[in-house]
Amino acid sequence: MKYFKKIIGDKCYLSPINLEDAEQYTEWLNDLEVSKNLAVSSQSIGLDKEKMILEDMIKRGNQIFAIIDIKTDKLIGNCSLFTIEYKHRKAEFGIFIGDKSYWGKGFGTEATELILDYGFNILNLHNILLKVYNFNNKAIRCYEKAGFHYIGKRRESIIIGGRKYDEIYMDILSNEFKSIYVKKVMERDT
Ligand SMILES: CC(C)(COP(=O)(O)OP(=O)(O)OC[C@H]1O[C@@H](n2cnc3c(N)ncnc32)[C@H](O)[C@@H]1OP(=O)(O)O)[C@@H](O)C(=O)NCCC(=O)NCCS
Questions:
Q1: Segment holding 138, helix H or strand E
Q2: Distance 109 CA to ligand 1 centre (A)
Q3: Ordered structural domains, the chain, with CATH
Q4: Is 170 within 8 Å of 150 (Cβ atoms)?
Q5: Is-contact 181 119, C-beta < 8 A?
Q6: Is residue 97 within 6 Å of ligand 1 at its C-beta?
Q7: Can you give the pTM of this predicted structure?
Q8: CB contact set of 26 (below 8 Å; sequence gap of 6+)
Q9: Which atom of ligand 1 is nearest to the CA of 133?
């Protein structure tokens, strides 16, 4: 598979989503260790449904990128900005790294920073929001490192395995984010 270096970091880059990767995403989304952290855990997602979901997301104007290991050009997950409202310059953010051998190595933090850079410095968004389950400490830490702040929670709104969990809300404003790639490109040769 050929990937394209749209937004580039040290460990990974973001490439436009490729529908031909739907099978790999489907495999990851059926791994409960991955999907228990995502809203899709309660859905049965086969290959056709995953293709439909991706096509629908693209049609709705969501910005979805494959996350690619920069050293090996290997697909490791994807991230997106969705429910984008240009009038109010806001969007929601989501991410998953499906290849578990990449967890805890800084790829999630860098991919988050890269899509924030795209959102704030290319799309000119001002507020980006995310929702995360309160048991997902790795994700919360990753988001804090990328600059997100805790803004509230919806209590006991997630029920899995007979236990109730809170849904945490975090956001970040454009003026709280320091560009790691887009501004560097803009400053070249100027
Ligand atoms: C959440 C996710 C994107 C994070 O990406 P990642 O590459 O694994 O995370 P990073 O390595 O960039 O950062 C993780 C941080 O959490 C820390 N961490 C790991 N496990 C932790 C735990 N149980 N409690 C607290 N912190 C933890 C790591 O030490 C690291 O922080 P540090 O750099 O200060 O040491 C990725 O693990 C993933 O996709 N998981 C499955 C799907 C998912 O949860 N998606 C998010 C849904 S909201």
A1: helix 137-146
A2: 8
A3: 7-187 (3.40.630.30)
A4: yes
A5: no
A6: yes
A7: 0.98
A8: 45, 46, 47, 50
A9: 48
pLDDT of residue 140 exceeding 90, the answer is yes
Pairing status of strand 127-133 against strand 90-97: parallel
Q: Is the CB of 37 under 6 A from ligand 1?
A: yes
> Residue 107 CA: which ligand 1 atom is closest?
7
- The 8-class DSSP code of residue 90 comes to E
Query: Based on the number of CB atoms within 10 Å of its own CB, is 11 exposed (0-12), middle (13-18) or buried (19 or more)?
Result: middle
Higher per-residue confidence, 13 vs 189 = 13
Closest CA to 149 of 123, 165, 128: 128
Best residue among 142, 143, 148 to mutate for probing ligand 1, ranked by most atoms within 8 Å of CB: 142
Q: Is 173 in the pocket of ligand 1 (CB under 6 A)?
A: no
Render pLDDT for 25-82 as a digit per residue (tens, 0 to 9): 999 999 999 999 999 889 999 999 999 999 999 999 999 999 999 999 999 999 999 9
